[in-house]
Design goal:
The complex is a heterodimer of chains A (161) and B (597). Chain A is α+β, with helices and mostly antiparallel strands and 161 residues long. In chain A, 16% of the residues lie in helices and 45% in strands. In chain A, strand 6 and strand 7 form a beta hairpin. Chain B has 597 residues and is α+β, with helices and mostly antiparallel strands. Chain B folds into 4 domains: 183 residues, Up-down Bundle (Four Helix Bundle (Hemerythrin (Met), subunit A)); 64 residues; 181 residues, Histidine kinase-like ATPase, C-terminal domain (Heat Shock Protein 90), CATH 3.30.565; 134 residues, OB fold (Dihydrolipoamide Acetyltransferase, E2P).
Chain lengths: 161, 597
């Protein structure tokens, strides 16, 4: 709460809300407006002949949506799903898509001015072009993701071949 | 010029009515050309134009009034017998109707554009002068004169020709207009496509159908209440035996009511295929004149109903096939006469139901498709190698015309022969889960048969178990299922095959195609599902058969739209997602695999 007050009082930049989630040791954030819902792991149906990070499809109340593993997408080691594992259902290119993350932490508010451009090199395998910025608050470092890039056009091209 | 909002309602009504009238008009006019003495038809056409004129003058669409007025006058003279219907007059009238469509299209778009209409109107005028009757009789010799004249002034004519792409008939068949000033560029103003008028965003539904649906929904509500009641009974500790009995009854009724509702909704979505068919007489007429061929189009089964989503999609493929039949199929009149056929070619377009499929056939009595020519061409274009060709039967060779980049005509015309047509046709048909077959007899004509599902929403399917994963195979593609001992399989050239009666069936292991992990202990026997597309058959090896079920097709979304071998997905009774296998993909994937080896 302290952070929110700080940022809203000492600058006039627009406030945005982020959903933060964990992948391994790193914390990431996406715009809350892109997130439709956050669900526990349902049964996933594998879809053959797709890239390794596409886990399959799920039944989201009668709608079939694809689900991809963020760990696999960013080349992190695989991990068993546990009680914390969540699927973040997000709207990408006006279609719903699920992203599997280790855990979802909270919704935070930051001012746009706090977002810095992404550094040139990132430690993990996250593609540089998927990053839209970095938010650094005290001991906390949040990496902002651009989801349109995560499920990028090239992927779709690959799939359509 | 946007319209005042208070007029919008009137205009909407006008548009709906006019669009319907105009849709019918094309068809009627072409029919009239064939039977010029049909007074009733002529009167009907006259009334349609008159209605459009009246309504547009009331609403103040001046351009529209001007065109319809002149057209009406010409029709009136036809009616009185002062003029006789002939192709030249019909060209002009059709052009005028096209112009009316463009103008109506403008109104629909909410913007009235100042369009140049004088060109068309000027063409109508000579038909109104007293001597017009004689002028049309003289039309044939005049054509020669005009052609000669056009050779003398090439720049002007060439410019005109390039600008009037919508009215290609103009050059070959100039209308008799002895008094027409040469400065007018007829047809120039018709930039927009007149065919785009119809839209299917609004529907007209029989009130009775909606009432029926409401009744069914009422019953559904009753059953829901019954279910809630049962649920609360169970919670308050009702007798289990009684509950089981009641629940069984409920399940049966619910099943019944749901399928009724499904039927009703399906019926509401059904529209007659006539909606697509009715534009073809006009297309055929124009093409025939353009190509200098004589062709008669016969339509059958226009009343056959199918899902609106399918109707919307088949228009383009059918147009392609009709054009192909006109361009490549039916020969020139002299050629036909020399081959001992009647000068006038016939194209038969028919639709019929067959089980829960609709079968549309386009049949011509032209020269047919020569497999040798097709083969030579395909090799020439580098689409197949001689070695591949040697292993192909006639059917496979004919199928080559569906390959991208294939075109047998030496000179490509602007009608067909761009080498994309058949490729696009097949892609479109595949998208609809349909199949296309070719039947051809050299010298006697060819037939293209499209088999399409009635609806894209719900299909009958066979659920199969592949090493623990459930897949759904569209029942329309399944011919039979067999239980087979593994040791009965043979291997021919690296390809697993099964001897089935007196034929050899190539096999596809679904677990290999979909790289499923082995979970079952090695069985000695398995099931083979024989799936077929057109004449091709492939045996699909699965672990178990789970049964037949009606499933609702769910799209996998844009992201997974093109997964090989997968056509879509569905949700099973227990909420799990099962993938729907694409039989066409399997059959062709198998071919590609064996050709590569």
């Amino acid at each position: 709460m302290e952070i929110v007050r700080e940022s809203s009082s000492d600058n006039t930049g627009e406030l945005i809300q982020l959903v933060s989630f964990m992948l391994g040791e790193e914390e990431f954030g996406v715009d809350v407006l892109k997130v439709r819902e956050i669900i526990r792991m349902p049964e996933i149906t594998r879809v053959p002949n797709t890239p390794h990070y596409v886990e399959g499809v799920i039944n989201l109340r009668g709608k079939v949506i694809p689900v991809m593993s963020m760990r696999n997408r960013f080349g992190l080691e695989q991990r068993e799903w546990d009680k914390q594992t969540r699927i973040m259902v997000m709207e990408v290119d006006s279609e719903l898509m699920g992203f599997i993350v280790d855990s979802v932490s909270e919704v935070i508010r930051i001012s746009e001015q706090e977002i810095q451009p992404p550094p040139a090199v990132v430690s993990t395998g996250v593609d540089h072009e998927c990053l839209s910025g970095i938010v650094s608050q005290r001991e906390r470092l949040l990496v902002l993701l651009d989801l349109e890039k995560v499920s990028s056009k090239e992927d779709r091209m690959l799939l359509s071949m | 010029m946007p319209f005042a909002p208070e007029d919008q309602e009137l205009i909407d009504g006008f548009l709906t009515e006019t669009t319907e009238l105009l849709d019918k008009l094309d068809d009627d006019l072409v029919t009239l050309e064939k039977s010029p003495s049909d007074m009733e038809l002529l009167n009907g056409i006259f009334r349609s134009i008159h209605t459009v004129k009246g309504a547009s003058s009331f609403l103040g669409f001046d351009l529209l009034v001007k065109v319809t007025h002149k057209t009406e006058d010409v029709l009136n003279r036809l009616r009185k017998g002062e003029l006789v219907v002939n192709p030249e007059i019909m060209d002009v009238i059709l052009e005028a109707v096209d112009l009316v469509k463009v103008l109506v299209g403008d109104i629909k778009a909410g913007e009235i554009v100042e369009r140049e209409i004088d060109g068309t109107v000027t063409k109508l005028l000579p038909l109104l002068s007293e001597g017009a009757g004689e002028a049309t009789v003289l039309a044939a010799p005049q054509q020669v004169v005009l052609a000669a004249a056009s050779a003398e002034e090439p720049p002007a004519e060439a410019g005109e020709a390039s600008s009037c792409s919508v009215q290609p008939t103009k050059e070959k068949a100039p209308s008799p207009r002895p008094a027409a000033p040469p400065a007018v560029a007829p047809g120039k103003e018709l930039k927009a496509k007149p065919e785009d008028l119809t839209d299917s965003s609004t529907v007209r539904i029989d009130v009775k159908r909606i009432d029926d649906l409401m009744n069914q929904v009422g019953e559904l509500v009753l059953e829901r209440n019954r279910m809630l009641q049962l649920d609360s009974d169970l919670r308050s500790g009702a007798d289990m035996n009684r509950f089981a009995e009641e629940f069984g009854k409920l399940a049966k009724r619910l099943n019944f009511v749901t399928s009724e509702v499904q039927m009703q909704v399906l019926k509401i979505r059904m529209i007659p295929v006539e909606k697509v068919f009715k534009k073809f007489p006009r297309i055929v007429r124009n093409l025939a004149r353009e190509l200098g061929k004589e062709v008669e189009l016969h339509l059958f089964g226009e009343e056959t109903e199918l899902d609106r989503s399918v109707v919307d999609e088949i228009g383009d493929p059918l147009t392609h096939l009709i054009r192909n039949a006109m361009d490549h199929g039916v020969e020139m009149p002299e050629e036909r006469a020399a081959a001992g056929k009647s000068r006038c070619g016939t194209i038969v377009l028919s639709a019929a139901h067959e089980g829960n499929q609709i079968v549309i056939s386009i049949k011509d009595d032209g020269k047919g498709i020569d497999p040798d020519k097709v083969a030579a061409k395909a090799v020439d274009k580098g689409l197949v190698t001689q070695a591949q060709l040697a292993n192909m039967g006639t059917r496979e060779i004919l199928d080559l015309i569906f390959l991208p980049g294939f075109s047998t005509k030496e000179v490509t015309t602007d009608l067909s022969g761009r080498g994309v047509g058949m490729d696009v046709v097949r892609t479109n048909i595949k998208k609809l889960n349909g199949i296309i077959e070719i039947r051809t007899e050299l010298g006697h004509g060819s037939e293209f048969v499209l088999r399409l599902p009635l609806t894209l929403a719900i299909i009958q399917s066979l659920l199969v178990d592949v090493e623990g994963e459930i897949y759904s195979i569209p029942l329309a593609a399944v011919f039979e299922t067999l239980r087979v001992e593994m040791k009965e399989f043979h291997t021919v050239g690296g390809q697993e095959v099964l001897k089935l009666r007196d034929s050899v069936l190539p096999l596809v292991r679904l677990e290999r195609v979909f790289s499923v992990n082995h979970t079952y202990a090695n069985d000695v026997s398995c099931y083979v599902v024989v799936v077929g597309v057109a004449e091709k058959r492939v045996g699909v090896i699965v672990s178990r058969l789970l049964g037949q079920q009606e499933v609702a097709i769910k799209s996998l979304g844009k992201y997974l739209a093109n997964v090989p071998g997968i056509a879509g997905s569905t949700i099973l009774g227990d909420g799990r997602v099962a993938l729907i296998v694409d039989p066409v993909g399997l059959v062709e994937g198998n071919e590609g695999g064996s050709a590569g080896r």
